[in-house]
Amino acid sequence: MDHDPPDLGPAAHDALDWETCSSELIIYCFTRTLVSAIQLHQELRVFEGDPEVKLVWVICPGSRFRREIDDWLRAKEIKPIPYSAAATGRRDVILTTSEWIDPLPFAPTPILVLLHGVGFHKFVKNRETGEYRLAGLARPEGLVTGQTTQTVTHPDQVRQLAEACEHTVGRTAFVGDSNFDLLCASRGERSNYRKALGVTEDQRLITLSSTWGRSSLFGRRAGLIDLLLAQLPCERYRLAIFLHPAVWSYEGTSEILRRLKPHIESGRLMVIPTAAGWHATVLASDLVIGDFGSTSLYSAMMDIPLLLATFSKNVVPGTVMADLGNGMARPIVLGLDLREQIEAEIERHDHSRAAHLVERLITHPGRSAGLLRDLCFRTAKKKAQPREFEVRSAPAPEPYLHAAHYFRFDFRVDGTEVTGDLYLAPFREKLRLTGERLLAEVGGNLLKRYDNASVIVDPTPASACSTKAHLAELSQRYPGCRVVGVLRDDGSSELLARDGRRFQVSCDRALPARMLAAACYSLVVAKQELRGEFTLRTSLGVATMTVTPV
């Protein structure tokens, strides 16, 4: 019985009979894990619009982190050829960001192994032997025969690899770091990235960055997310988190989103998807809380204040990452006030650290694209035509996020001064603090919250002529609520107390209607006359609030 041959596309030996577009160089793009696929796709941007090159993707077997590669490639409209038949196809060079592929079935085709992080700073378990190996270093089989070339970004890495594996001597090549180049090129987009994340000028963005494994931030210190959401005033701070693609790949997207659903629904944690967005989120951040993953180093190289939530015994001694964990970056202490630690780190941040790290890790800044293209052609013993490379910025993040609806507050009244902040109710309540009250905004679906709220605010702007009726409707609908409020379309708020008094509230700076309502509730409880100007002190600063009886 005849069988159709496997679809090898441009790699098929009879492709010349069928193809329309010719090429000088056929590159096999090997991927074995989701993170290697994402990084390789980024590296391959160097060939966008290049008529001399054809790219053929191959998914290699043998990794625990293979899940979701097919869906990710399909979303990119990439159709890989079958691994079982790939060895029979035409190719000039193999390019991969997955160091543990088996080179022997594809000998003697030269293989270029690129890093999918920064440097060689971690030991990982060898699935075949149970022993630990240096992450990022290519399999020795290809190095011994000369088939494989290991790329590096700094001379120190050449020395490190020679000590770890003698077969790397003479088998390394210098390239740039595309992640570092992309971060540097995108620095000027910081304000746009913050806008895409909904972070205002007077807010601080705190980003959590986790690698994979039980020793990672997400593996060992997931409770830190709860503590941050409970302790940080929610008007002043926004939180984002991105997880290593291996976390998404092994655990599955649905499982990650299930675990983080309460945090997302709190309205103040933005989960950055695995495929894109971490570069922009780092640059948008005021501080990163990380671990022993490469993004901690990238954040520090970008001069972003950094705290470490956890570290690992598997970090290679003497590396830059080891230095980061041994005092170059401070640890965050869960038993102490998190806000104080964050503000202190931002205040005393050492700006000289970034240049020191770059000097130790990167020797060809801004040249990753050209160096990689030249290396591919040179390795295949073909001549590359000169090309100009456009400088592109990282894409804006598109996080999983949700609107916040439920808050806790305890404003203190001292004469005409009102001091306090709003906190996310679901996590603040875990601290079991006395004296705080519940404020709910219209739009949520947790009905019991509205029954228990002391203040309810509708944040949808309404015309001045409709607010009286709307306030009456809210007051009737929620009889246990002491103050209800409506945002007016002129930017002010209108409030109705349970005793029937109605007030218009304005402020000399743009503060949310819920914050003004919480302050006025506290004045009502303190039996303060609701008329005139009041000084409002919050984590956003000092403002003047004007209350006028209606």
Key terms:
550 residues, alpha/beta, 6-stranded parallel beta sheet, 22% strand
If you had to describe this structure to a student in words, what would you say it looks like?
The radius of gyration is 28 Å and the shape is elongated. The mean pLDDT is about 95. Helix 7 (about 190-195) crosses helix 12 (about 280-285) and helix 10 (about 245-250) crosses helix 11. The chain is built from 21 helices and 25 strands. About 30% of the residues lie in helices and about 20% in strands. By secondary structure, it is α/β, with parallel strands linked by helices. The relative contact order is 0.10.
Total helices: the number is 21
Rg, rounded, reads 28 Å
Helix content: 25-40%
Flag low-confidence runs: none
Number of strands: 25
Q: Could you tell me how far the N terminus lies from the C terminus, measured between alpha carbons in angstroms?
A: 89 Å
Approximate shape: elongated
How much of the sequence lies in strands comes to: 15-25%
**Main sheet, how many strands, which sense, barrel?**
11 strands, mixed
Overall residue-averaged pLDDT value: 93
Instruction: Look at the helices and sheets and give the structural class.
Output: alpha/beta
Q: For the largest beta sheet, what order do the strands appear in spatially?
A: 16-17-24-25-23-22-21-20-19-15-18
